[in-house]
Amino acid sequence: MLALTACSAQGGKPADTAAGGSGGQVASTPRLKVALITHAAAGDTFWDIVRKGAEAAAAKDNVEILYTSDADAGRQAQLVQQAIDQKVDGIAVTLAKPDALKDALKKAVDAGIPVVTLNSGSDVSAKLGAFTHFGSDEKLAGEAVGAQLVSQGLKHPICVIQEQGNVALEQRCGGVKEKVPNTEILYVNGQDMTSVQSTATAKLQTTKDADVIIGLGAPFTLTVLKSIADAGSSAKVASFDLNGELAQDIVDGKVLFTVDQQPYLQGYGSIDAIWQNKVGGFRIGGGQPVLTGPAIVDKSNASDVLKFAQQGIR
Q1: DSSP secondary structure string for all residues of 10-61
Q2: DSSP class per residue in 123-170
């Protein structure tokens, strides 16, 4: 059985099992215990933002968060089972590889534990027993990126997928390809940034007509920027998702734009929805996913977003 403290997605920072401080009044409802289980890989700053949102909702709602993560779908399913065994009051879970989680989630639903999904798997969320989902429409987000590229006259993108088989990432690049048919997919090992940099460099060196390369997460886009320099390429850079450093690079003109799915809202909404369900039987979303994106951040608004990105909430 895996330890409940499984890998934290904060680059070695230990997970907080209780909600952080709050400036407002804590709900007077009974204290709940909610498991937040993601497919985060260590060091990906995206998940720090998800957790910040979740912890803000938990502080307000008198909720204890049990946060665990594992990039391996089989082990993520074991974390769901572990939460069931702990008799948690709710489970918020990502569905990057839903087939691996369906049996565990059925057990959760059969045990009467309310399930909310977030970030990935919106198209299968309801089928697997979740009463709502918080996230972006990934294909729509990809199409938004493609439309931006077309508007800037870019015709040969390389879309970098850091985890093969992750349905959300595949949908992003699929959406780009809908708008820009000449899009190429490049698979890299997202758990090894040195490998990401060298693989992207090699691709740029052999694909001289590539005019833009797209990272599917802020840390990967920042690494791809190094590949551009290593390869001596003139390709532009675009991105999905956001952190403070990437927002600054957009302000500075090093990155064209990013599509933000607002992960803070995904974490906040997931925990708050479970609390609402427990205290009032409410089911937010009316059976449909609650969209948190896509939101374009480019040179025109990056300065406004930067202050929030530096606070770790965008």
Answers
A1: STTPPPPSS----SSPPP-SPPEEEEEEE-PPTT-THHHHHHHHHHHHHHHH
A2: TTTGGGT-SEEEEE-HHHHHHHHHHHHHHTT---EEEEESSTT-HHHH
R_g of the chain computed on alpha carbons: 19
Whole-structure pTM value: 0.83
What does the pLDDT look like over 33-92, one tens digit per residue?
Answer: 999 999 998 778 899 999 999 999 999 999 999 999 999 999 999 999 999 999 999 999
Write out the two tokens for 244.
């403070």
Tokens 């003139």 correspond to what residue?
Answer: 234
Helix (H/G/I), strand (E/B), else coil: 71: coil
Residues 6+ apart with CB under 8 A from 43: 9, 11, 193, 219
Q: Give which of 62, 61, 66 is closest to 51, Cα–Cα.
A: 66
What letters, b where the CB count within 10 A reaches 16 and e where it falls short, cover 111-122? Answer: eebbbbbbbbbb
The region that residue 243 occupies, defined by phi over 0 for left and psi between -120 and 50 for alpha, beta otherwise, is beta
DSSP assignment letter at 95: -
Q: CA-to-CA distance for 177 and 182, rounded, in angstroms? A: 7
Which tokens is 82 given? 């572990």
- What confidence tens digit (pLDDT) does each residue in 172-183 have? 999 999 999 999
